[in-house]
Design a protein that fits this description.
- GO terms for molecular function: hydrolase activity.
- Keywords: Hydrolase.
- This is Alpha/beta hydrolase.
- The chain has an eight-stranded mixed beta sheet, with helices on both faces.
- The chain has helices at 37-45, 52-60, 71-77, 86-99, 112-121, 142-158, 187-198, 239-245, 247-252, 273-287, and strands at residues 2-6, 12-18, 25-28, 65-68, 105-110, 127-133, 216-221, 225-227, 236-238, 255-260.
- By secondary structure, it is of the alpha/beta class.
């Protein structure tokens, strides 16, 4: 079943619900729409599954009911530059659950959508479990991401009228110099993430841990360290370093922590269904007490 739902800002989002209604529900805001042709080939160059959403749903639907949508894709198309606050994002997610008649659910998010899962967990009692991929539950790099998103926004403003490399020229990844890359995107797309991180500047992710009484898992690839060049504030966002540093403390707090091994297991590789499903599916089955 798929429906078009209205969110808090009146924008419309396609949401799907599949699987046995008697099964536990997993909310998947990461379920990107499949792409094909040249766009799919381009994604593969970056190590991205062009059917990411479809493969996540297929991988989980035999044991769970799946509430799926592409929240990131939606926000890139329907920007909310002034009001994309953690509180409003959580309201969007709960609105989606309400309109699909889903009371309780587990949540899986990756990267900034993992951060959103933590915000959801402290604002509702409807979560049954939480999985955060590619973003640490304590000592999250909020300040670093604030600098990176601010710099991205500045570049987007400055580059609105500058010539840009034609994407059809398909430059090989090896030729891209990340220090010199120029950002030319819709300023509202990046402004909304500035708004989100601005509203997290006072957030203490240690202070809220006592509120989390549900099963929860955090994971990252062992090479998940992103070094941003001068254009982006010369910041390093060391997801795996933060997770490893706090692994023992997190486990004492009740988190399950997994580090995905592999020399290529970076931020992108560690979010692909082929990698993630083998970790989260058995974890969900175990923690939601689902019979095999």
């Amino acid at each position: 079943m798929e429906k078009i739902l209205k969110l808090m800002d009146e924008s419309e989002l396609k949401v799907g619900l599949v699987g046995n209604p008697n099964c536990k529900t997993i909310m998947l805001p990461v379920a990107k729409e499949s792409v094909c042709g040249q766009e799919a080939e381009n994604l593969k160059l970056w190590g991205v599954d062009p059917e990411l959403g479809k493969h996540f749903i297929e991988g989980l639907v035999d044991k769970f009911q799946i509430l799926y949508f592409d929240y990131e894709g939606h926000r890139l198309q329907h920007t909310n530059p002034e009001h994309l606050t953690p509180e409003n994002i959580v309201k969007d997610l709960l609105t989606i659950a309400d309109q699909m008649n889903v009371k309780n659910f587990s949540y899986y998010g990756y990267s900034w959508l993992a951060l959103v899962g933590l915000q959801l967990a402290i604002r509702t009692d409807r979560l049954e479990s939480l999985i955060m991929g590619g973003f640490p539950p304590i000592d999250g790099p909020y300040k670093e991401m604030m600098v990176v998103t601010n710099k991205t926004y500045e570049q987007a403003l400055n580059n609105q009228h500058s010539p840009i490399i034609d994407e059809q020229n398909h430059i090989s990844l090896e030729q891209i110099e990340w220090d010199n890359i120029q950002v030319k995107i819709d300023t509202n797309q990046t402004k909304q993430f500035v708004t989100m991180y601005e509203n997290l500047m006072g957030f203490d992710d240690r202070e809220i841990q006592y509120k989390l009484m549900i099963p929860r898992l955090a994971f990252a690839g062992e090479k998940d360290t992103i070094v941003y060049g001068e254009n982006f504030g010369s910041k390093t966002v060391d997801i795996i370093g933060l997770l490893q540093k706090n692994k023992q403390e997190l486990e004492q707090l009740g988190w399950d922590i997994e580090i995905l091994k592999g020399n290529d297991m970076d931020h992108t590789k560690a979010m692909q269904p082929i990698t993630v499903l083998s970790l989260i599916k058995p974890w969900l089955i175990k923690n939601l007490n689902i019979g095999h």
